[in-house]
Design a protein that fits this description.
four-stranded mixed sheet, hydrolase, Nudix_hydrolase, Nucleoside Triphosphate Pyrophosphohydrolase, NUDIX_hydrolase_CS, hydrolase activity, 189 residues
Length: 189
């Protein structure tokens, strides 16, 4: 079977969805489904907002990152700037706004490179990665909750940081690994 095929007999049937909990950041639903095996049941789905993440490089081949604490799993690590796309806002505009708010740097124009779902089996949260080259320091971060230590990290260190588990969040990981893979493709071409 080719990857282009989408056989209907393997599609899960959806009969409806009801919301159990809802607020501006998260919605928990029960979806009435019937997988291909024919056993119908309700399945929990978490629906989150669309997210834009910025991977900004400078002329020294360094990436703009933040070292910060995440209380949910009590971890410290590096992250790319990013956040929720406001209703009616363009993803690239969100990515640029988040860079400015979280780091104090205004990035050059950002281009969309890929979209993904970090936990497609249970969580619906579209993530969009934007990249750009260059930024201008325009002031201090305005979102002090997000800003911790802000640094331009050499791309030559990124794979090591990922290997040590020092890069947090799927958006940061996917964006950085995509860039590293893209560079590998170009080097091998």
């Amino acid at each position: 079977m080719s990857t282009d095929e989408r056989p209907e007999e393997l599609r899960t049937k959806v009969f409806g969805e009801r919301t159990i909990y809802d607020n501006p950041w998260v919605r928990l639903t029960l979806v009435d489904i019937e997988p291909p095996d024919g056993n119908r049941f309700e399945y929990h789905v978490v629906r989150l907002q669309r997210v834009a993440i910025a991977l900004v490089l400078n002329e020294a081949d360094e990436v703009l990152m933040m070292w910060r604490h995440r209380f949910v799993d009590d971890s410290w690590g590096w992250e790319l700037p990013g956040g929720i796309i406001d209703k009616g806002e363009d993803g690239a505009a969100t990515a640029a706004r988040e860079v400015r708010e979280e780091t104090g740097w205004q990035p050059a124009p950002l281009d969309h490179v890929l979209s993904f779902q970090p936990m497609v089996g249970m969580v619906d949260t579209p993530h969009e990665i934007y990249t750009g080259r260059g930024a201008e320091l325009v002031g201090e971060p305005t979102d002090l909750e997000e800003a911790a230590r802000i640094e331009w990290v050499p791309m030559s260190r990124v794979f090591d940081l990922i290997s040590k588990g020092e890069v947090l969040g799927s958006g940061s990981l996917v964006g950085l690994l995509y860039l590293l893979a893209q560079r590998g493709q170009k080097a091998g071409a």
